[in-house]
Amino acid sequence: MEKEVAKVRKIIHVDMDAFYASVEQRDFPELRGKPLVVGGSPEGRGGVVATCSYEARAFGIRSAMSSKKAQQLCPYAIFVYPRFAAYKEVSKQIREIFSRYTDLIEPLSLDEAYLDVTEDKRNIGSAITIAEEIKKAIKDELNLTASAGVSINKFVAKIASDINKPNGLTFIGPSKIENFMEKLPVEKFHGVGKVTAERMKMQGIRKGSDLKKLTEERLTLLFGKSGKFFYNIVRGIDNRAVKPDREIKSVSSEDTFSYDLDKGNELYERLMQITQSAFKRINQYQLFGRTITVKVKFADFKIITRSASFEHAITDETEAILAARTLVENADFGSKTVRLLGVGFSNFHEAKMRNKIEEQAKLF
Questions:
Q1: Which locations, inside or outside the cell, does it occupy (predicted)?
Q2: Which of 21, 25, 143, 180 is the most buried (most CB within 10 A)?
Q3: 210 has a pLDDT exceeding 80
Q4: DSSP 3-state assignment of 147?
Q5: Nearest Cα residue to 267 out of 296, 242, 245
Q6: For the whole model, what pTM was predicted?
Q7: Is residue 262 annotated as involved in ligand binding?
Q8: Distance between CA 63 and CA 67 in Å, rounded?
Q9: Does the annotation mark 132 as catalytic?
Q10: Which domains does the chain have, with CATH numbers?
């Protein structure tokens, strides 16, 4: 009996280009071609950049940056109040375009999603052709641009979508994945944050080729459970399925230290960095939780978690850092040293950024 050959998956990652800013520039022609910042405030009083136009990015402005820093980089930047109802409506229209081709759609946020088109509704067969048609429909019907990555799994497709932004389309086929991953700088690996990238470089790991030299056991020792993930993805292995109607219930970040830490200043410095990393991610998702959880793994591998819930959504990074620190300070470590710290947000506020926006509204 002939052995059945596994079907190669066809995955597309679609990422809208500067989504909120592009919607603003589309709806208000006077903003086109100008350095535009969505969110924050020109006075810089606690505001945070939700996103910005490519004209603003040319000055070094980035998402999750303080508005004070943004204005320093570009004194002529235009700050606008976010219109989340409008962005959500456009996101629904984009989703409708996706659904013409597949029901296997996994949204990551309002402006990006994975699509599994291994079997597509229109029997087109080519994932590249489908990505081209989706991009064209978004442009023709919504007057917006999107970038797309096409590959055989989610990880590579997501990286591919970022290569030729804006308005790009990149295909990385099965025969090219390993070579592509070997040449990729570690900071470009989705899931490798700034802190982890620096730890990798301290170990002499600068590119995928360096990562590939290490055994799974060594990577697990260095990076905990992420080690197995790194071992697989540098070889182009990612078997995660596209999950329709994925609901984000929690967002977290964690780091395994290269040496165990006592409860003290260095531990709190690392805790602050991890909290900032997690907070940056919830900013990207535009989800702000009422619950913050700290995970502590000790040198003996025992794990404890401590949580705190608030009546309001945590929309300020400083508040998040202080809450995380308080949880750690109140935890009984005894004489144990710490191997890993993690910080997560959950219990997301129904209105997402409502608290933040209401606080900032008077600044405009």
A1: Cytoplasm
A2: 21
A3: yes
A4: strand
A5: 296
A6: 0.70
A7: no
A8: 10
A9: no
A10: 7-172 (3.30.70.270), 185-233 (1.10.150.20), 250-357 (3.30.1490.100)
